[in-house]
Amino acid sequence: MDLTNVIKPLLISGAEVLPLVEGGKGIAISDGVSSGAWAAEGGIGTFSAVNAHTPGEGYLCVPGAYSSRTRLKRHAEMIERAISGGVAQAKIAYETACGRGRIHMNVLWEMGGVDAVLHGILSKVKNMIHGVTCGAGMPFRLAEICAKYNVKYYPIVSSARAFNILWKRAYSRVSDWLGGVVYEDPWLAGGHNGLSTNEDENVPEPHEPRVRSLRELMRSYGISDLIPIFVAGGVWHLNEWENFIGNPEFGAIAFQFGTRPLLTVESPIPMAWKKSLFSRKKGDVELNRFSPTGFPSSAVNNVFLRKMQARLKRQVSFTKVADGVCTEAFPLTGSGSGTSNREVFVKKEDIPNINAWRNEGFVVPLVTPSKTLVFVSEDDLAEIERDRRQCVGCLSACKFSGWNQEESAQIIEPDPRLFCIQNSLQQIVITGDVENALMFCGHEGYRFAEDPFYEGGYIPSVKELVARIRTGY
């Protein structure tokens, strides 16, 4: 069924636009060019303001890019650069759209200095940005910040329960500026996912009952059915979503595409990344727990992730004094162990594994917040120490580096089983090395290889992609 004339415009962020949304995605993966091109086709383009870069000035976390010597000053420098980059991308998007569609900006609520970045960008781009989407955390202050600048806000949630908390604590007082709610499927979306502690990452739940529950909750609070729910995560062919189109049970529905816009002419990701998408297979994208945000995330299981998975297996429990379980003395030599003890005690049955790891070159034991020792190589240690030394506070609280922007907050014990996420995300954009850096992707990424639209390695323009999506495929 051709849906070209079935997909009707909706009133979103003050204009009638196609209910087709480009997902914001993370660092340098959705920029002003790609979002502006999407808006120009009558939809909603979303650029990422997660430490966006100013064209010509490079990326934010390249080693040596910061002039400040202390982490606190680098953090302030990062915020200043992030504001400058966000403003630059907003202007590019606005000029590229030529007055068509809508431009939204996406931020990560747990990114460092998010309040300052939002105020800094929104105060300088009047009428260029029409909405702000925000997830990865509970963005309670999002509504009041957006309302100050007459911009609609769009929280990203993975359940009705999450929206209920946001509404009761904050949004009910700023309801006029609620533009919509993004429901992001936590089992299918790429990047950080909103799986709660009572949800099983191995048992995905269908979209329909979860979206229905969200709409019913919104109605219970008097929120109009005209306020759209953006369905995100796993959206590929609209023909697979016919039950949502024009169905009064769900109210106004828009569809957010995160993975498909990766593969367009305007997409800013390197060509090596684009070409690698053609070889993705079902199951290549996996949920993992390595993000220093503390949230699970979905990424391609490449060399980088396999290295992190292997590191996780090279750990043993220990005690500082011998007990009935940990009876074998183990000397702590070399730098970076994370404890002042000169020796600790481990289980007798772990000694053969420790010796095997050391023979393989993993000779440095590091203490984890779980009170285990994880064994890494000297090169791994150098990388961990370098990334911590160059930390800019890109997150509000980082489990890898121990950074916490709230001085009064509890001290975070750094975890060597994690990594610097901003450095990795920027390195893949800079180098195009799709094996040795974090590579976010939605779980439907394997469909590039199966979809005849991309036959022969074809890379469409945004214009072509939007036209294709409107047909239902």
Keywords, please?
28% helix, TIM Barrel, 8-stranded parallel sheet, alpha/beta, globular, 473 residues, 5-stranded antiparallel sheet
Description:
The protein is α/β, with parallel strands linked by helices. It folds into 2 domains: 293 residues, Aldolase class I (TIM Barrel, Alpha-Beta Barrel), CATH 3.20.20; 128 residues, no CATH class. Helices cover 28% and strands 16% of the residues. It has 12 helices and 18 strands. An 8-stranded parallel beta sheet has the order 3-11-10-8-7-6-5-4. A 5-stranded antiparallel beta sheet has the order 15-16-14-18-17. Helix 1 runs parallel beside helix 2, helix 2 packs parallel to helix 3 and helix 5 runs parallel beside helix 6. The N and C termini lie close together (9 Å). The mean pLDDT is 91.
CATH topology of the largest domain: TIM Barrel
Radius of gyration equals 23 Å
Oligomer status: single chain
Query: What's the arrangement of strands in the largest beta sheet?
Result: 3-11-10-8-7-6-5-4
CATH architecture of the largest domain: Alpha-Beta Barrel
Mean pLDDT: 91
Number of helices: 12
- Shape verdict: globular
* Termini Cα gap: 9 Å
The CATH H-level superfamily of the largest domain is Aldolase class I
SSE diagram, text form:
Blueprint: E1 10-12, E2 15-17, E3 20-22, H1 32-40, E4 44-48, H2 71-97, E5 102-108, H3 114-122, E6 131-135, H4 142-148, E7 152-157, H5 160-169, E8 181-184, E9 191-192, H6 207-220, E10 229-232, E11 253-257, H7 271-276, E12 285-288, E13 297-300, H8 303-313, E14 315-319, E15 328-331, E16 343-346, H9 351-359, E17 364-367, E18 372-376, H10 378-389, H11 421-431, H12 462-470
Parallel strand pairs: 3-11, 4-5, 5-6, 6-7, 7-8, 8-10, 10-11
Antiparallel strand pairs: 1-2, 9-13, 12-13, 14-16, 14-18, 15-16, 17-18
